[in-house]
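WARN no homologs supplied; continuing
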Amino acid sequence: MKRIVWVLVLMITTAPAWAANKKITVQQLKDLLVSMQQYNKTDQDTANHLKEIELNEELTDSAASSLESYLPGPLSNEQIEILKRQSAFLAPPATDIPATPAPDAAAQQAMLAKAADFASKVYARNPHLSVTKTTLRFEDHVIITNSIGLHNTDMLLGPILLINTQVDPVETDKGVEKPAASRAKTKWGENDKISEGEPGTNLGAIFLEASSAGKFEWLRWQMIDGWQTAVFSFAVEKKKSHFDVSYCCFPKTDTLTTGSMLMTNGSMIHSISTWVPFKKVVGYHGEFFINPNTGLVVRVITRAELKPTDFVFREDRRIDYGSVYLAGKAYMLPRVSITAMEVVPNGDNNTATRTIRHTLFLALYQNYKLAGAL
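OK structure emitted
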């Protein structure tokens, strides 16, 4: 008996790093991939293990690129891409944060003043533009484990996967994106999909609200695209907010009692479902990433303050901005948007077996043009 116990202990203490299932750091992710490569794990095996991992810090573009040599194929590459997007709202590893001391209060206020000028006087005056928006939807999927008849189906939620890709021509005016015309007629909810919500964050509006709330706090320096960037947190209370969370659509179930000879009490209860949008103005908080010299906002993260009882109870959004040259002039415009959301897709239908859905949207903005230009 003692020998068996000792063998079990030895197996546990010598288990490879990839046997764990927990939140890990970026360095631990690299160690895991090195270990799996040493064990000659297949692309499918590596991908399966990566599906069980959650990062507790951001996997930056440069860090993700450094892992490519340890990935045996396209399946594991896709999972690294998903981990990168899921972790996009977290702080990077401490080793990636500059050791530069925090600026004093006066320097911080000067940076915020420059950013306010950019948001209100430059970004908010962007011209009417057209752009191609490519949206990738990642979503956890249903695995049917046992199916007997219509109403006796056992289901589990599988790992998040790329579900589909949509390409839309969209327009922006004064920095505000207009909804894509091709999405307006989609019967969201009824097609087992929740819409991707309202278009991207209105930078000018949220910076103004954050400034009015007066709740900026210094967080850290961070390297973005080789530049040292100032990161400030902010918060806007609901009573001062115009931040709109809007998704379509969720079933609303009503009951109707009708006469019936089949029931011993002379009545039968029928359920009638209609599809309704979720629309709510909420408080929110997040971070602004500011070029300290120019005041350009190069990234913004917003986190909607939703209730756990809401049909949409998480919406985190990150938008990365970059320079785009049009007609010889530079504009700061959205290049990448990431939205992480958690919803109750079946609304108030208590008989549904699927209660929570995790969805990740990755939107890429390409080929900006002045509206009307060929």
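The chain is about 20% helix and 40% strand.
OK
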